């Protein structure tokens, strides 16, 4: 069976891009509650608890936490090389955006469809923030 790629428009927040396996969180996330060594979410009760975001395309509801906590979490992940390859965010908020800017983490929002309907865990996703495009290939 041939895989089908779907293309979606989005809005660039932070330039760049990446591609890889999607990891999806319909809930907000605090990056300070990720283990910087592994990128594993350690927040108790979070849908991604125990899973690593490192090297993935993170589809995220939004960020949560104070600016100091969020920026420090992003910075620690950046230093250890365990950030996602790119982030697709549903609800943009200033702390998440400023954290991404500080570490130059590619980020987009305003996907032309609901990202939680178009992308599932394990799908292959390419984010090109510069071209304001997301390509999704469903997992088998």
From TrEMBL:
Residues 32-108 form the Phosphomevalonate dehydratase small subunit-like domain. The keyword Lipid biosynthesis does not apply. GO terms for molecular function: lyase activity. The keyword Phosphoprotein does not apply. InterPro entries: PMDh-S-like (IPR012016), PMDh-S-like_dom (IPR002840). This is DUF126 domain-containing protein. It comes from Aminithiophilus ramosus. It holds the Pfam family AcnX_swivel_put. Keywords: Lyase. SUPFAM superfamilies: LeuD/IlvD-like.
């Amino acid at each position: 069976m041939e895989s089908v790629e779907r293309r979606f428009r989005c809005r660039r927040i932070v330039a760049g891009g990446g591609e890889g396996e999607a990891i999806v969180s319909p809930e907000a996330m605090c990056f300070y509650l990720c283990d910087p060594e592994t990128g594993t979410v350690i927040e108790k009760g979070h849908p991604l608890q125990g899973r690593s975001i490192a090297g993935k395309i993170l589809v995220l509801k939004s960020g949560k936490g104070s600016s100091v906590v969020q920026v420090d979490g992003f910075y620690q992940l950046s230093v250890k090389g365990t950030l996602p390859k790119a982030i697709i965010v549903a609800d943009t908020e200033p702390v998440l955006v400023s954290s991404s800017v500080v570490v130059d983490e590619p980020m987009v929002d305003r996907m032309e469809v609901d990202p939680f309907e178009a992308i599932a865990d394990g799908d292959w996703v390419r984010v090109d923030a510069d071209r304001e495009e997301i390509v999704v290939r469903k997992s088998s």
